[in-house]
Design brief:
- Helix 1 crosses helix 7, helix 2 packs parallel to helix 4 and helix 6 packs parallel to helix 8.
- The protein has one domain: NAD(P)-binding Rossmann-like Domain (Rossmann fold, 3-Layer(aba) Sandwich).
- It is 42% helix and 16% strand.
- It is α/β, with parallel strands linked by helices.
- It is globular, with a radius of gyration of 19 Å.
- Helix 5 links the parallel strand 5 and strand 6.
- The strands form four sheets. Strands 3-2-1-4-5-6-11 form a seven-stranded parallel beta sheet, with helices on both faces.
- Bound molecules: nicotinamide-adenine-dinucleotide and 2'deoxy-thymidine-5'-diphospho-alpha-D-glucose (DAU).
- The site of 2'deoxy-thymidine-5'-diphospho-alpha-D-glucose (DAU) has 19 residues, from helix 6 and strand 8.
Length: 341
Protein backbone atom coordinates (compact mmCIF):
# COMPACT_ATOMS: atom_id res chain seq x y z
CA UNK A 1 0.00 0.00 0.00
CA UNK A 2 1.14 3.53 -0.69
CA UNK A 3 0.10 5.78 2.21
CA UNK A 4 0.17 9.58 2.25
CA UNK A 5 0.59 10.94 5.77
CA UNK A 6 0.11 14.70 5.91
CA UNK A 7 1.56 16.69 8.82
CA UNK A 8 4.09 13.93 9.53
CA UNK A 9 6.71 16.39 10.78
CA UNK A 10 4.44 17.35 13.67
CA UNK A 11 3.88 15.66 17.01
CA UNK A 12 1.26 12.98 16.31
CA UNK A 13 1.99 12.55 12.60
CA UNK A 14 5.69 12.07 13.44
CA UNK A 15 4.95 9.43 16.06
CA UNK A 16 2.56 7.76 13.59
CA UNK A 17 5.25 7.59 10.90
CA UNK A 18 7.72 5.98 13.35
CA UNK A 19 5.06 3.40 14.19
CA UNK A 20 4.01 2.65 10.59
CA UNK A 21 7.44 2.60 8.95
CA UNK A 22 8.64 -0.01 11.45
CA UNK A 23 5.43 -2.06 11.58
CA UNK A 24 4.77 -2.29 7.82
CA UNK A 25 8.08 -2.49 5.93
CA UNK A 26 6.10 -3.58 2.83
CA UNK A 27 4.06 -0.34 2.77
CA UNK A 28 5.36 2.90 1.27
CA UNK A 29 4.90 5.95 3.49
CA UNK A 30 5.07 9.45 2.00
CA UNK A 31 5.19 12.29 4.52
CA UNK A 32 3.80 15.58 3.15
CA UNK A 33 4.41 18.55 5.43
CA UNK A 34 4.71 22.30 4.92
CA UNK A 35 7.20 22.60 7.81
CA UNK A 36 5.40 25.44 9.54
CA UNK A 37 6.71 26.52 12.96
CA UNK A 38 5.29 23.22 14.29
CA UNK A 39 6.98 20.94 11.76
CA UNK A 40 10.41 19.57 12.57
CA UNK A 41 12.35 17.11 10.44
CA UNK A 42 14.53 16.25 13.48
CA UNK A 43 11.52 14.21 14.62
CA UNK A 44 11.93 11.96 11.59
CA UNK A 45 15.70 11.38 12.05
CA UNK A 46 15.21 7.81 13.38
CA UNK A 47 13.35 6.75 10.20
CA UNK A 48 14.63 9.06 7.46
CA UNK A 49 16.92 6.41 5.91
CA UNK A 50 14.33 3.63 5.84
CA UNK A 51 13.61 2.45 2.28
CA UNK A 52 9.82 2.66 2.80
CA UNK A 53 9.83 6.34 3.90
CA UNK A 54 9.97 9.59 1.91
CA UNK A 55 9.47 13.28 2.74
CA UNK A 56 7.83 15.85 0.45
CA UNK A 57 7.52 19.49 1.41
CA UNK A 58 4.27 21.21 0.45
CA UNK A 59 1.00 22.83 1.46
CA UNK A 60 -2.19 20.75 1.65
CA UNK A 61 -4.13 23.87 0.60
CA UNK A 62 -2.06 24.36 -2.59
CA UNK A 63 -4.46 22.82 -5.13
CA UNK A 64 -2.22 22.60 -8.24
CA UNK A 65 0.60 21.12 -6.16
CA UNK A 66 -1.68 18.59 -4.43
CA UNK A 67 -3.31 17.48 -7.67
CA UNK A 68 0.02 16.94 -9.42
CA UNK A 69 1.36 15.03 -6.39
CA UNK A 70 -1.69 12.74 -6.32
CA UNK A 71 -1.52 12.20 -10.09
CA UNK A 72 2.13 11.22 -9.88
CA UNK A 73 2.02 9.09 -6.73
CA UNK A 74 -1.33 7.24 -6.98
CA UNK A 75 -1.85 6.93 -3.23
CA UNK A 76 -4.01 4.09 -1.89
CA UNK A 77 -4.60 5.72 1.49
CA UNK A 78 -4.50 9.32 2.75
CA UNK A 79 -4.27 10.07 6.47
CA UNK A 80 -4.68 13.78 7.18
CA UNK A 81 -2.90 14.96 10.32
CA UNK A 82 -1.80 18.31 8.87
CA UNK A 83 -3.37 21.18 10.74
CA UNK A 84 -2.84 24.31 12.70
CA UNK A 85 -3.32 22.72 16.11
CA UNK A 86 -2.87 25.26 18.92
CA UNK A 87 -5.99 26.85 20.45
CA UNK A 88 -4.13 29.95 21.76
CA UNK A 89 -2.71 30.70 18.30
CA UNK A 90 -6.21 30.34 16.79
CA UNK A 91 -7.47 33.02 19.18
CA UNK A 92 -4.68 35.33 17.95
CA UNK A 93 -5.09 34.60 14.24
CA UNK A 94 -8.04 32.49 13.03
CA UNK A 95 -7.40 32.93 9.27
CA UNK A 96 -4.64 30.40 8.86
CA UNK A 97 -6.80 27.86 10.72
CA UNK A 98 -9.52 28.24 8.08
CA UNK A 99 -6.99 27.99 5.26
CA UNK A 100 -5.13 24.90 6.45
CA UNK A 101 -7.76 23.04 8.43
CA UNK A 102 -10.76 23.64 6.18
CA UNK A 103 -9.47 24.48 2.69
CA UNK A 104 -6.54 22.10 3.11
CA UNK A 105 -8.91 19.26 3.96
CA UNK A 106 -11.30 19.95 1.06
CA UNK A 107 -8.34 20.18 -1.33
CA UNK A 108 -7.15 16.74 -0.19
CA UNK A 109 -10.69 15.34 -0.45
CA UNK A 110 -11.03 16.63 -4.04
CA UNK A 111 -7.70 15.08 -4.98
CA UNK A 112 -8.69 11.81 -3.27
CA UNK A 113 -11.86 11.72 -5.42
CA UNK A 114 -10.04 12.66 -8.61
CA UNK A 115 -7.32 10.03 -8.20
CA UNK A 116 -9.34 7.17 -6.74
CA UNK A 117 -7.91 6.98 -3.23
CA UNK A 118 -9.29 3.90 -1.46
CA UNK A 119 -9.41 5.37 2.04
CA UNK A 120 -9.32 8.95 3.31
CA UNK A 121 -8.84 9.16 7.07
CA UNK A 122 -9.35 12.49 8.81
CA UNK A 123 -7.63 12.98 12.18
CA UNK A 124 -9.95 15.11 14.26
CA UNK A 125 -10.35 16.09 17.87
CA UNK A 126 -12.73 15.83 20.83
CA UNK A 127 -12.79 19.65 20.88
CA UNK A 128 -15.43 19.57 18.12
CA UNK A 129 -17.94 18.48 20.78
CA UNK A 130 -17.39 21.66 22.84
CA UNK A 131 -17.03 21.13 26.58
CA UNK A 132 -18.75 19.38 29.48
CA UNK A 133 -19.65 20.91 32.86
CA UNK A 134 -17.20 20.26 35.71
CA UNK A 135 -19.97 19.10 38.06
CA UNK A 136 -21.30 16.30 35.78
CA UNK A 137 -18.64 13.55 35.84
CA UNK A 138 -21.29 11.16 34.48
CA UNK A 139 -21.30 12.90 31.06
CA UNK A 140 -18.99 11.87 28.18
CA UNK A 141 -18.64 12.69 24.48
CA UNK A 142 -19.99 9.91 22.27
CA UNK A 143 -19.94 9.86 18.47
CA UNK A 144 -23.56 11.11 18.61
CA UNK A 145 -22.78 14.20 20.73
CA UNK A 146 -23.66 17.28 18.63
CA UNK A 147 -20.81 19.45 17.35
CA UNK A 148 -20.70 22.62 19.44
CA UNK A 149 -17.41 24.47 19.21
CA UNK A 150 -15.76 27.13 21.36
CA UNK A 151 -12.54 28.31 19.68
CA UNK A 152 -11.54 29.22 16.12
CA UNK A 153 -9.37 26.06 16.21
CA UNK A 154 -12.22 23.72 17.14
CA UNK A 155 -14.58 25.47 14.71
CA UNK A 156 -12.13 24.90 11.87
CA UNK A 157 -11.74 21.21 12.82
CA UNK A 158 -15.53 20.74 13.11
CA UNK A 159 -15.96 22.39 9.74
CA UNK A 160 -13.44 19.99 8.20
CA UNK A 161 -15.30 17.06 9.82
CA UNK A 162 -18.56 18.21 8.24
CA UNK A 163 -16.91 18.38 4.80
CA UNK A 164 -15.43 14.90 5.26
CA UNK A 165 -18.83 13.40 6.08
CA UNK A 166 -20.54 15.42 3.33
CA UNK A 167 -18.05 14.13 0.74
CA UNK A 168 -18.85 10.59 1.82
CA UNK A 169 -22.58 11.14 1.43
CA UNK A 170 -22.45 13.24 -1.74
CA UNK A 171 -19.60 11.69 -3.71
CA UNK A 172 -19.20 8.34 -1.96
CA UNK A 173 -15.64 9.24 -0.84
CA UNK A 174 -14.44 6.28 1.29
CA UNK A 175 -13.78 8.20 4.49
CA UNK A 176 -13.24 7.40 8.15
CA UNK A 177 -12.92 10.00 10.88
CA UNK A 178 -11.45 9.81 14.38
CA UNK A 179 -11.82 12.24 17.27
CA UNK A 180 -9.19 11.90 19.94
CA UNK A 181 -8.68 13.49 23.34
CA UNK A 182 -5.50 15.36 24.45
CA UNK A 183 -2.29 13.56 23.50
CA UNK A 184 1.05 13.55 25.30
CA UNK A 185 4.36 11.80 24.61
CA UNK A 186 7.66 12.32 22.77
CA UNK A 187 8.16 15.08 20.17
CA UNK A 188 5.30 17.36 21.29
CA UNK A 189 5.89 21.03 20.50
CA UNK A 190 6.67 22.89 23.75
CA UNK A 191 3.78 25.35 23.40
CA UNK A 192 1.39 22.61 24.62
CA UNK A 193 0.72 22.13 28.33
CA UNK A 194 2.87 19.09 29.21
CA UNK A 195 6.11 19.86 27.29
CA UNK A 196 5.76 23.56 28.17
CA UNK A 197 5.62 22.78 31.87
CA UNK A 198 8.46 20.23 31.71
CA UNK A 199 10.80 22.56 29.82
CA UNK A 200 10.05 25.58 32.02
CA UNK A 201 10.24 23.65 35.29
CA UNK A 202 13.66 22.31 34.28
CA UNK A 203 14.81 25.92 33.85
CA UNK A 204 13.19 26.94 37.19
CA UNK A 205 10.90 29.32 35.26
CA UNK A 206 7.35 30.24 36.29
CA UNK A 207 4.65 27.83 35.12
CA UNK A 208 1.66 29.77 33.69
CA UNK A 209 -1.55 28.00 34.73
CA UNK A 210 -4.65 29.54 33.10
CA UNK A 211 -7.28 30.69 35.60
CA UNK A 212 -7.70 28.43 38.61
CA UNK A 213 -6.23 25.41 36.82
CA UNK A 214 -9.38 23.36 37.40
CA UNK A 215 -10.18 22.71 33.73
CA UNK A 216 -10.12 19.01 32.94
CA UNK A 217 -8.48 17.27 29.99
CA UNK A 218 -8.62 13.55 29.11
CA UNK A 219 -5.02 12.51 28.43
CA UNK A 220 -4.00 9.75 26.00
CA UNK A 221 -0.46 8.63 25.21
CA UNK A 222 0.32 9.38 21.57
CA UNK A 223 1.31 5.71 21.01
CA UNK A 224 -2.24 4.61 21.78
CA UNK A 225 -3.62 7.22 19.38
CA UNK A 226 -1.34 5.90 16.61
CA UNK A 227 -2.43 2.29 17.22
CA UNK A 228 -6.10 3.39 17.07
CA UNK A 229 -5.69 5.25 13.76
CA UNK A 230 -3.91 2.30 12.15
CA UNK A 231 -6.73 0.01 13.33
CA UNK A 232 -9.48 2.33 12.06
CA UNK A 233 -7.81 2.70 8.66
CA UNK A 234 -7.41 -1.07 8.26
CA UNK A 235 -10.56 -2.38 9.96
CA UNK A 236 -12.91 0.56 10.50
CA UNK A 237 -16.14 0.89 8.54
CA UNK A 238 -16.25 3.48 5.76
CA UNK A 239 -18.42 6.49 6.62
CA UNK A 240 -18.00 6.00 10.38
CA UNK A 241 -16.71 8.26 13.17
CA UNK A 242 -14.64 6.75 16.01
CA UNK A 243 -13.89 8.46 19.32
CA UNK A 244 -10.44 7.75 20.84
CA UNK A 245 -9.71 8.19 24.54
CA UNK A 246 -8.69 6.20 27.58
CA UNK A 247 -10.60 7.70 30.56
CA UNK A 248 -7.63 9.59 32.00
CA UNK A 249 -9.14 12.83 33.22
CA UNK A 250 -6.95 15.22 35.16
CA UNK A 251 -7.28 18.88 36.12
CA UNK A 252 -4.50 21.06 34.71
CA UNK A 253 -3.23 21.64 38.25
CA UNK A 254 -2.99 17.87 38.82
CA UNK A 255 -0.95 17.53 35.62
CA UNK A 256 1.42 20.35 36.57
CA UNK A 257 1.87 19.03 40.11
CA UNK A 258 2.65 15.53 38.75
CA UNK A 259 5.39 17.04 36.57
CA UNK A 260 6.81 19.10 39.45
CA UNK A 261 6.95 16.03 41.72
CA UNK A 262 8.66 13.94 39.03
CA UNK A 263 11.29 16.65 38.49
CA UNK A 264 11.65 17.39 42.21
CA UNK A 265 10.73 21.05 41.70
CA UNK A 266 8.69 23.26 44.10
CA UNK A 267 5.01 24.11 43.62
CA UNK A 268 5.96 27.76 44.13
CA UNK A 269 6.88 27.77 40.42
CA UNK A 270 3.15 27.69 39.60
CA UNK A 271 1.71 31.08 38.66
CA UNK A 272 -1.99 31.51 37.95
CA UNK A 273 -2.39 33.81 34.93
CA UNK A 274 -5.33 35.34 33.01
CA UNK A 275 -7.59 32.62 31.67
CA UNK A 276 -7.73 31.58 28.01
CA UNK A 277 -10.67 33.28 26.24
CA UNK A 278 -13.61 30.87 25.84
CA UNK A 279 -11.67 28.23 27.81
CA UNK A 280 -13.35 24.80 27.54
CA UNK A 281 -14.02 23.35 30.99
CA UNK A 282 -13.89 19.58 30.59
CA UNK A 283 -13.27 17.06 27.82
CA UNK A 284 -14.06 13.38 28.37
CA UNK A 285 -14.28 10.74 25.66
CA UNK A 286 -16.45 7.63 25.66
CA UNK A 287 -14.37 5.17 23.56
CA UNK A 288 -16.89 2.27 23.75
CA UNK A 289 -17.44 2.05 19.98
CA UNK A 290 -13.72 1.71 19.21
CA UNK A 291 -13.28 -0.84 22.00
CA UNK A 292 -16.27 -3.03 21.19
CA UNK A 293 -16.28 -2.83 17.38
CA UNK A 294 -12.52 -2.86 16.71
CA UNK A 295 -11.10 -4.32 19.95
CA UNK A 296 -8.87 -1.30 20.74
CA UNK A 297 -7.42 -1.09 24.27
CA UNK A 298 -4.87 1.53 25.31
CA UNK A 299 -1.46 0.30 26.48
CA UNK A 300 -0.90 3.24 28.86
CA UNK A 301 -2.91 5.09 31.46
CA UNK A 302 -1.76 8.55 32.58
CA UNK A 303 0.21 7.21 35.56
CA UNK A 304 2.11 4.65 33.46
CA UNK A 305 2.58 6.93 30.43
CA UNK A 306 3.77 10.14 32.05
CA UNK A 307 7.07 8.95 33.63
CA UNK A 308 8.47 7.74 30.28
CA UNK A 309 7.33 10.98 28.65
CA UNK A 310 9.12 13.14 31.22
CA UNK A 311 12.20 10.94 30.83
CA UNK A 312 12.08 11.45 27.05
CA UNK A 313 12.21 15.25 27.49
CA UNK A 314 15.10 14.84 29.93
CA UNK A 315 17.02 12.63 27.48
CA UNK A 316 16.25 14.67 24.37
CA UNK A 317 16.93 18.22 25.50
CA UNK A 318 18.52 19.16 22.21
CA UNK A 319 15.27 18.45 20.33
CA UNK A 320 13.21 20.96 22.35
CA UNK A 321 16.00 23.39 23.29
CA UNK A 322 16.52 24.09 19.57
CA UNK A 323 12.83 24.96 19.30
CA UNK A 324 12.57 27.22 22.31
CA UNK A 325 15.69 29.16 21.36
CA UNK A 326 14.22 30.12 17.93
CA UNK A 327 11.11 31.94 16.67
CA UNK A 328 9.13 30.35 19.47
CA UNK A 329 10.69 32.77 21.96
CA UNK A 330 8.88 35.66 20.20
CA UNK A 331 5.59 33.75 20.41
CA UNK A 332 6.08 33.06 24.11
CA UNK A 333 6.84 36.70 24.89
CA UNK A 334 3.80 37.82 22.87
CA UNK A 335 1.45 35.27 24.40
CA UNK A 336 2.58 35.37 28.03
CA UNK A 337 4.48 38.68 28.30
CA UNK A 338 1.74 40.62 30.08
CA UNK A 339 0.49 37.63 32.05
CA UNK A 340 3.56 36.42 33.97
CA UNK A 341 5.13 38.53 36.70
P1 LIG B 1 1.28 19.72 15.32
O1 LIG B 1 0.97 21.18 15.33
O2 LIG B 1 2.34 19.19 16.22
O3 LIG B 1 1.67 19.29 13.83
C1 LIG B 1 1.00 19.76 12.70
C2 LIG B 1 1.87 19.48 11.49
O4 LIG B 1 1.15 19.91 10.31
C3 LIG B 1 3.20 20.25 11.48
O5 LIG B 1 4.25 19.39 11.12
C4 LIG B 1 3.00 21.33 10.41
O6 LIG B 1 4.19 21.70 9.75
C5 LIG B 1 2.02 20.63 9.48
N1 LIG B 1 1.22 21.58 8.68
C6 LIG B 1 0.59 22.70 9.14
N2 LIG B 1 -0.01 23.32 8.11
C7 LIG B 1 0.23 22.60 7.00
C8 LIG B 1 -0.14 22.73 5.64
N3 LIG B 1 -0.89 23.76 5.22
N4 LIG B 1 0.26 21.79 4.75
C9 LIG B 1 1.03 20.75 5.17
N5 LIG B 1 1.44 20.58 6.44
C10 LIG B 1 1.03 21.49 7.35
O7 LIG B 1 -0.11 18.99 15.57
P2 LIG B 1 -0.42 17.62 16.35
O8 LIG B 1 -0.61 17.92 17.78
O9 LIG B 1 0.54 16.60 15.91
O10 LIG B 1 -1.86 17.31 15.75
C11 LIG B 1 -1.99 16.53 14.55
C12 LIG B 1 -3.46 16.38 14.22
O11 LIG B 1 -4.14 15.73 15.29
C13 LIG B 1 -4.19 17.70 14.03
O12 LIG B 1 -5.10 17.54 12.95
C14 LIG B 1 -4.92 17.94 15.33
O13 LIG B 1 -6.09 18.67 15.12
C15 LIG B 1 -5.23 16.51 15.74
N6 LIG B 1 -5.34 16.25 17.20
C16 LIG B 1 -4.38 16.66 18.06
C17 LIG B 1 -4.47 16.32 19.41
C18 LIG B 1 -3.40 16.73 20.41
O14 LIG B 1 -3.61 16.54 21.60
N7 LIG B 1 -2.28 17.26 19.99
C19 LIG B 1 -5.57 15.59 19.87
C20 LIG B 1 -6.56 15.20 18.96
C21 LIG B 1 -6.43 15.52 17.61
O1 LIG C 1 -8.45 17.71 23.09
C1 LIG C 1 -7.63 17.61 21.97
C2 LIG C 1 -6.89 18.90 21.76
O2 LIG C 1 -5.92 18.99 22.78
C3 LIG C 1 -6.25 19.00 20.38
O3 LIG C 1 -7.25 19.01 19.40
C4 LIG C 1 -5.38 20.24 20.26
O4 LIG C 1 -4.69 20.25 19.03
C5 LIG C 1 -4.38 20.23 21.40
O5 LIG C 1 -3.59 21.41 21.36
C6 LIG C 1 -5.08 20.12 22.75
O6 LIG C 1 -5.84 21.32 23.04
P1 LIG C 1 -5.84 21.98 24.51
O7 LIG C 1 -6.22 23.38 24.37
O8 LIG C 1 -6.60 21.12 25.46
O9 LIG C 1 -4.26 21.80 24.86
P2 LIG C 1 -3.18 22.77 25.53
O10 LIG C 1 -1.97 21.95 25.77
O11 LIG C 1 -3.05 24.05 24.80
O12 LIG C 1 -3.86 23.09 26.94
C7 LIG C 1 -4.24 22.04 27.84
C8 LIG C 1 -4.90 22.70 29.03
O13 LIG C 1 -3.90 23.42 29.76
C9 LIG C 1 -5.97 23.71 28.68
O14 LIG C 1 -7.01 23.65 29.66
C10 LIG C 1 -5.27 25.07 28.79
C11 LIG C 1 -4.22 24.82 29.87
N1 LIG C 1 -2.98 25.58 29.72
C12 LIG C 1 -2.31 25.52 28.54
C13 LIG C 1 -1.14 26.22 28.36
C14 LIG C 1 -0.41 26.16 27.02
C15 LIG C 1 -2.46 26.32 30.80
O15 LIG C 1 -3.06 26.35 31.89
N2 LIG C 1 -1.30 27.00 30.62
C16 LIG C 1 -0.62 27.01 29.43
O16 LIG C 1 0.43 27.70 29.33
Amino acid sequence: MKILVTGGAGFIGGNFIHYMVNKYPEDEIVNLDLLTYAGNLETLKPVEDKPNYRFVRGDIADRPFIFSLFEKEKFDVVINFAAESHVDRSIENPDIFVKTNVLGTTTLLDAANAFDVKRFHQVSTDEVYGDLPLDRPDLFFTEETPLHTSSPYSSSKASADLFVMAYHRTYGTPVTLSRCSNNYGPYQFPEKLIPLMISRALADEKLPVYGEGLNVRDWLHVYDHCVAIDLIVREGKVGEVYNIGGHNERTNLEVVRTILRALDKPESLIEHVTDRKGHDRRYAIDPTKLETELGWKPKYNFDTGIPGTIEWYLNNREWWENIISGEYRNYFDRMYGGRLK
